[in-house]
Amino acid sequence: MSASFEHRTLKSTLIGARVDTTVQFRGIPYGKVTKRFAEADFVTDLPAKLDCTRYGPRCPQVPIDVRHLLRIPRDHILPAEPEDEFKCLNLDLVIPEEHFLKFEPRLPVLVWIHGGSQAVTFGSAASGVCDMTKIVADSAKLGKPVVAVSIQYRLNIFGFGDETSASNLALNDQRLALEWVQAHVSGFGGDASRVTLAGESAGAVYCHAHLVRKAPAAQFILSSGSLHLSPPQPPSKASPMRERLTGHVQDLGPFSLQNAPVSVMVEALQRSGIQSWFIQEEQQLQDWHRTVWGAQRLLLSDVQNESVLWRSGIWSMAASDIIHAFGLAGMKSTELMRLYGIDVERPSSCKIGALDFINDYKFLLPVENMVECGRSQTKLSVYRCLIDENNPWQPSNGAHHAVDLVLLFGGFDHIISASAKRTGQNLREKWIDFIQGDEPWPSDSYVAFGPHGMLQQLDEIGANSRRRMANVKFLKKMDISEVAPVFNALAVGRISLLN
To answer: What is the annotated signal peptide range for this record (predicted)?
Structure first.
């Protein structure tokens, strides 16, 4: 069943879809790209009537089966998603059905940025992985209704740019979408002054960058990622990426990055083996690690096993190579190896320890530092949670990177366990509290979601029992010149979403 209305500021009659107890407007174009690697401009000329019942196209990308990492059963078929490099700047907007065409009181707004190593779409609404239906429907049931917006943006080389273009096109696309929200969300009943910007993994990296850039959002949620995970890189790191891809493009014909057909670009991306991209250095991000927080509140989360993304790569390493990597820590290498069980006579222990180190250095340490900084230096309200619910289809895989998407958005609740559904329900309720401006739990404590459907407030002892906090204390004492070489030797070139 459809739902339509004339949007005042968009000057178009939007035809949306009624789904469960929500009204959804899908594939709304917020930006237009006139040519490859061009900066996007606002879409200002919508047709008199716009069909918003179908999801819009995503950015061209190397195909990736998101079911693999998430362990979604193979017999659950995900829909094919169209791709278009010039029409991928679109968004989906979901509102509670009971608030459709009601503009007072205005509702707080959740804006979601998906992850995918800045290379692929890992979790679109179309796939069901990051479908906003359930969190919006639950918000209305709880009497705390919210509006949700999920953004599509340029990825991989299309969002990276060439040597002559502006850099960080993907980041700028997202900023354009945030400005669109400021200009038009009130026409859907949303409150532009109460925006929460959230993302997971690479999406959280982008959210952190928007926080530093002082994007128009009052609150931020960073799940399993930050700029510490993928810091802005200089031109000296960007140029080799482009050169590598250019070589593969030229192998496929008389093309350049600027004029190669999309099919050639995607084939070159696949041949290049480039698994992840990065934000490039710019003036606004120059002091990102020293920037005083500009948000009112933060919610920060991690899962127990973030480093699963490097598992295949680490397990392919010889124990001697892992020991060599840890030796790059210099005077602190002996203690670092002791903490992480790096022993030449115990190859399995070496590999597990290497994964634990990656987890702690790139995920746990940054989030703990951000909590400490926010609470002690700027008196920012920071809410910290641990997500420890095991994968619902393969519990032995643990609470791994991205499993929180399955839980939080509930897109697969019909085929997961009761305990996983309970954890997802708890997550949604607490997120809704945060989006509403309420206190989801005391900001001076930790909260754990899972395992087995449990929701538990933790003191310091409880947090220490779930995370390697003693190791984090040691990592805090290490200089980046000591710890970064270890990470680079272990992790560079070994990340994959197919783990």
So the answer is: none
Instruction: Please give the residue that has the higher pLDDT: either 257 or 381.
Output: 257
- d(CA 86, CA 31) in angstroms, rounded, equals 9
Cα distances (angstroms) measured from residue 341 to each of 186, 355, 356: 55, 11, 10
Phi/psi region, residue 388 (left: phi>0; alpha: psi -120 to 50; beta: rest), is alpha
Percent of the chain with pLDDT over 90: 95
Tally of CB atoms within 10 A around 78: 14
Indicate the average pLDDT of the chain: 96
Per-residue pLDDT tens over the stretch 10-57: 999 999 999 999 999 999 999 999 999 999 999 999 999 999 999 999
Count of C-beta atoms within a 10 Å radius of residue 498: 10
Task: Tell me the C-alpha distance between 222 and 383, whole Å.
Answer: 11
Distance of CA 471 to the CA centre of its chain: 26
Q: Is the Cα dihedral 254, 258, 261, 266 positive or negative?
A: positive
* pLDDT above 70 for 198: yes
Per-residue pLDDT at 293 exceeds 80: no
Report the amino acid identity of residue 117.
S
3-class SS of residue 357: helix
| 107-139: b (≥16 Cβ within 10 Å) or e | bbbbbbbbbbbbbbbbbbbbbbbbbbbbbbbbb
Instruction: DSSP for 3-20, please give it.
Output: EEEEETTTTEEEEEEEET
pLDDT exceeds 90 at position 348: yes
In the prediction, which pLDDT does 292 show?
60
Q: How far apart are CA 133 and CA 122, in angstroms?
A: 18
Q: Is the dihedral of CA 330, 303, 277, 222 positive or negative?
A: negative
CATH of range 2-295; options 3.40.640.10, 3.40.630.30, 3.40.50.1820, 3.60.60.20: 3.40.50.1820
Instruction: Quote the tokens at residue 60.
Output: 């061209």
